[in-house]
Amino acid sequence: MDYRRLGASGLKVPALSFGAGTFGGSGPLFGAWGNSDAQEARRLVDICLEAGVNLFDTADVYSNGASEEVLGQAIKGRRDAVLISTKTSLPMGDGPAGYGSSRSRLIRAVEDALKRLGTDYIDLLQLHAFDAGTPIEEVLGTLDDLVRAGKLRYVGVSNFSGWQVMKSLSLADRHGYPRYVAHQVYYSLVGRDYEWELMPLGLDQGVGALVWSPLGWGRLTGKIRRGQPLPEKSRLHDTASFGPPVEDEHLFKVVEALDAIAEETGKTVPQIAINWLLQRPTVASVIIGARNEEQLRQNLGAVGWSLAPEQMKKLDAASEVTAPYPYFPYHRQEGFARLNPPAV
Length: 344
What we know:
This protein has 344 residues and is an alpha/beta fold. Helix content is 40%, strand content 15%.
């Protein structure tokens, strides 16, 4: 397993990490992902550790805390061998104190997560969404207190916009608070919006990307083809509306390029889609999920080799879309290109 520094921090994370959203799954979204109990989860953790995958990502909102609980049971007795990443800020109840990133909410959310995980510290806490109703100084000051108390090692965010990340980093520098070192983002061959603003920001500010849904919300599994109906057992029947939308023609163009490279390499479509991400700037780790051992072992096959430059170019061309304003108007002009060298 390749290990990479997480942004500008000293923390090294594996190129692949494991997403525990399938642990204890319940409800229309997480139940469709998977519902591994503690025994099955422990077996999946065993396989991950054997392969060098020691970072496990979860969130309090995943199955209303059940994912954290099952992960905590699965790593019991080997806490020092793993890195735990969890997230908070999304609603965990209907009351006013059940969501957001206020001081009271963050302190209680961290304490609750520590209990569910069965540990006394979290390696990486990420804010799951930007809280526009709480001053950023209050958020950062609270995170600083939690880091100083030894309950958090590093902090990051997830699904923030560029200005939200940059303002937070600026205020952290001004007040001496911990900087965000990670941004957990949606990024895939059928969803490259991350490249327009957040990737250049990450390069400039030392914020590493942890990639969620690298297979385009289940669309790049190798089971979806042009002219064929959605497979009967696909979770997209139940979960498509929860994830980022993708136009059919764009999806099929990417899938056909993946199929061609699969024939050349002997690798599977998911392995190729993940390997492409691992060669992109700022990507520290790609979060893979699995409902069972077979899926996990297939995803682990995405490392230990690299796509050739011409194969990367083929995938780049098939997945490219026109960027929105203000990113597209002048990008073909020579002078603009000199002012804004590409991030890739």
